[in-house]
Amino acid sequence: MAKPSPTRDDSAPEIAELPSNLKSADRVQPWPVLVLITLVAVAMSLFQMYSAGIQTFGLFYQRSIHLAFVLFLCFLIFPVFGPDRRRGLLGWLVDGSFLAAAFMSGFYMVWNLDAIIMRAGFWNQTDITMGIIATITVLEASRRAVGLGMTVIGAIAILYALAGARGALPGLGEWMPGIMSHRGASVERLIGQLYLGQEGIFGLPLGVAATYVFMFVLFGAFLEVTGAGRFFIDLAFAATGRKPGGPAKAAVVASAGMGSISGSAIANVVTTGAFTIPLMKRLGYKGKQAGGIEAAASTGGQITPPLMGAGAFLISEYTNIPYIEIVMVSIFPAILYLGTVYLFVHIVAMKSGMKGMTAAELPLVRNVLKAGWQFIVPLVVLIWLLVNNYSPMRVGFWAIISVVAVALLRALVVIVVIDPRRGKPLTIGVLRDAAELGISKLIEALALGARNAVAVSIACAVAGIIVGVVGLTGLGLKFSSMMIALSGGNIVLALLLVLLASLVLGMGLPVTAAYIVLIVLVGPALHTEFGIPLLIAHLVVFWYSQDSNVTPPIALAAFAASAVAGSKPMETSVQAWKFAKGLYLIPMFMVFNPEIILGGPLHVVLWTGVIAILALVTFAAAIEGYLFTWLDPVSRLVIIPATVAIFWPDATIEAAGAAVLLLVVLLNWWKGRSAPAPAAR
């Protein structure tokens, strides 16, 4: 087990690993295919860089070229019979057909865009045929790269659109319940919606993936290839490792740092968890606890600015609120969530008498900063550009340029100044080797960024199919009516229904896709019928869309953590669900205390922040039965109604609840002063 080294020099940082599904696919690929994958991926990243920083393209040009690259990469990376089996003759025949279809699906729009616009609504047979091919190709790519669940949901959406008295499948419409029925769409009308317009495959979800999301995924790849992931992990260990339960606290801090460059909770788990989970187990955490902590902390990376797992970009596009405002209002809720996980970790460590790591086992802060100071510069550049209202796409471009610049500067300092002092003189051979290494790192980062973007872009394309069907059939309004009817107009029940729907969708969809589908279905009702402000409605849905990472029975991040921890997946997911309680409470707090997001008078904002912290602290203490010392049963029981009072939209009741919680905290602190410390483990 590799662990942080106090004297580590990151002048030669480790290379970021591909996700496990990509690595397993690579093992069965012949080397010419691997070379082709790299060439296509590098070409895609260069196109994205060009369009972001040099020459912007129109909507359909950008999205269709992006889709062609993504689909082509997908069918190269993922063989038809699975990532662990070689293609063979039959496999190459199938995949060759899909590779051709992938190329045509995107570039047909580029070549014929003017003609397609001219005959809008009066499509010819070639348009319809290409639309059918593109739709099937996107669904098959989804099966390979995203999973069968999302493919099935996309196929069901298409069948639903065709079902109806005037549709291509009138018999299927007879099976639809009254509220779900509609007149049906012909194949031509459906393809016009899904492929030949901007409300389907080439709609807003793919548009965001093809612009903002890709640039930040590529930015993350550059940081990872140059060693930023290890830098953030080492810095977190240096800051928190000596405290009780240090590795677990480092997992929380490192996941917040990784969340700024990674768009995946599972990626956070396998990156930081490879270091933190074994160390947590060594200090006394059970395997299921260590895995649950890492899963909950890594899920926090999805809601941590600036990337927020692509959510900030999507929310900005759907609400027309500037991206920087989304980021700014999301900082405090993210701190609340990560602080809650941190508190759970601290409580578990304290009540078990755990100690931190020794100084000899930890990296020194000055050594970490000395080796990796350059990774802070791109983040500063990114934040400065965002604050100065640069577009997120342009921000991503310059952030990547800054990564390359500081990495080059660092390499030059090492080669020209540091190495000669160590007895390694500067020679032509040294410069040649350094140049070759730099070029290989550049190619690797470009390829890694494109490959990491495949799944999210394809998920967004399928989400576009679902969104297109929702718009074509009016399903969103019907779903909203159903939610109002089932909740009886009660906002708490409505939020619970949203939470349940997000969990069900999360079993088959990635987080980003689950948010897109759910906001289209329930967003209008939350905003117009229940009076929840638009931004808060989107944040609530986005936060609840994360729950499939940590909520049994399908807890994807927790399952990944259980594999690292060697624990049972279901037990690990139960622990993750416990540690991630802020994921469920904080969105509800946003609804009943909107000042935390929308602002207001200073004293109201401060009061709202204080009671939010107080409620989360005491709720965590009630679950664990410990704060400064053991909580008695009466105190644990009193915390529940007092926490409910904090959420009550009445100032008097809210103040009474806060007073009770504060009294419980003070009494426990007083008892803790004289209580003996738990025995060390």
N/C terminus separation: 21 Å
Give the amount of beta strand, in percent. under 5%
Helix count, DSSP H or I runs of 4 or more residues: 30
DSSP helix fraction: over 70%
Largest sheet composition: none
What does this entry look like structurally?
This protein is mainly alpha-helical and 681 residues long. Among the domains are: 13-145, no CATH class; 153-184, no CATH class; 600-681, no CATH class. Helices cover 74% and strands 0% of the residues. It contains 30 helices and no strands. It has helices spanning 20-27, 31-53, 59-77, 88-118, 125-145, 148-162, 170-173, 187-194, 204-225, 228-240, 246-259, 265-283, 287-301, 311-319, 323-351, 365-372, 376-387, 392-421, 428-473, 475-487, 491-506, 511-529, 534-544, 556-565, 569-579, 582-592, 595-598, 602-624, 633-647, 651-674. The protein is globular and about 85 Å long. The two termini are 21 Å apart. The model is unreliable at 1-18 (pLDDT under 50).
